[in-house]
Amino acid sequence: MSHVNNLESQHNDPAFANIWQELTWRGLVHVSTDETELEKLLAGDPITYYCGFDPTAPSLHLGNLVQLLLMRRLQLAGHKPLGLVGGSTGLIGDPRPTAERTLNTKDTVAEWVGYLQGQVRRFLSFEGDNAARMVNNLDWTAPLSAIDFLREIGKHFRVGTMLRKDAVASRLNSDEGISYTEFSYQILQGMDYLQLFRDYNCVLQTGGSDQWGNLTSGTELIRKVEGKSVHALGTPLITNSDGTKFGKSEGNAVWLDPDMCSPYTFYQFWLNTADADVVDRLKVFTFLSRAEIEALGEAVAERPFAREGQKKLAYEVTSLVHGVEATEKVIAASAALFGNGDLTVLDERTLEAATAELPSATINADGLGIIELLVASGLSESKSAARRTVGEGGAYVNNTKVSDPDAIIAQDELLHGRYLLLRRGKKNLATIEVSA
Q1: Is 115 annotated as contributing to ligand binding?
Q2: Motif 'HIGH' region: which ranges (predicted)?
Q3: Domain range 248-345, CATH class
Q4: Tell me, which fold does domain 7-235 have in CATH?
Q5: Are strands 202-208 and 48-53 parallel, antiparallel or unpaired?
Q6: Model's pTM, two decimal places?
Q7: For residue range 10-69, what is the model confidence (pLDDT) as tens digits?
Q8: Is 245 annotated as a binding residue?
Q9: For the domain 360-435, what is the CATH superfamily, name and number?
Q10: Distances in whole angstroms, Cα of residue 350 to Cα of each of 134, 185, 267, 336
């Protein structure tokens, strides 16, 4: 993925006294080690902090985006980020509350490490006094023998404490149980924090609040081994106001990789945000100021039909993840589908993504009569209904009205040599793919 983010245009809001106040207003602080100390720490000299991402898939998703943007906000406040992609923890698997993970091969995990490092790099600046650095926990776990691991790290963990961690406790009470492999995950994550504390004087780890047990395993280990106090910050798990899980679209996670979730689908996901959730999403997922977000909140309350908040949210987040150029293409595609733009300027990938959810049919090149097309696409249930649609002026091919029921669509009208967009009336759309 190319580096499409315009990092130079990102700023924290100077209206806040310090970064902690802004993080709190944005709703990013759910749980932390010591709020007073953390506020003082983050308002002082630059510190080093880290967040870890495990390669359990070839892409990061919206939950990870919360952490990436939190890391960026802290960097904008002058602090030094470490982006950890877990080459070793990704081989083990963070225990899920329900069932054991399927272990991926070492080659697969190594490949995914590369993908995720590329994604993390796009959200942080690797230049300047507080340049970000990438680290991989395989670098310090791979050389460690099992005996050394048990003697030097394992002896500092109490099984009773480990059993009380939420994910472990829920698994122990399930039919599935938990393997020693996944049970040991929190020890490995604790060891990461200790290593980064020693190597970089890292004194803050961030993560989702569902990771709190893993975050505190590190703070406790450093306290026992080094006699030092370090910090952890857990962000809230984001849910929709109606109680449904955020970040799922049609049953799938909303991925940051454009090959796994197209920029069009990504944009539509944000555009479909409920009015009740828009302001919260703007706070977490954009760099807009408090004044800008409050103004959009008023617009949503007073003119919900205009969807100003949703449009701004979709534009900002899609630009952050996929770049301004891809976002402009998506907006053009949305307009063009409903006759407010030129379909011929859309590249094939954007067109395919924009029409992916529409009814579609494949026909051969000698079936390009308008009546046949309307019936084949399902927009008309019979030839007589199709003739009626044409006669009433309701038939469009590639946004051009077709008034002659005997019209044959010419080959040179096919989009990218093989597609047609059919419309009946204002809102009923379908696509035709013409086979060679």
Answers
A1: no
A2: 55-64
A3: mainly alpha
A4: Rossmann fold (3.40.50)
A5: parallel
A6: 0.90
A7: 999 999 999 999 999 999 999 999 999 999 999 999 999 999 999 999 999 999 999 999
A8: no
A9: RNA-binding S4 domain (3.10.290.10)
A10: 32, 41, 12, 11
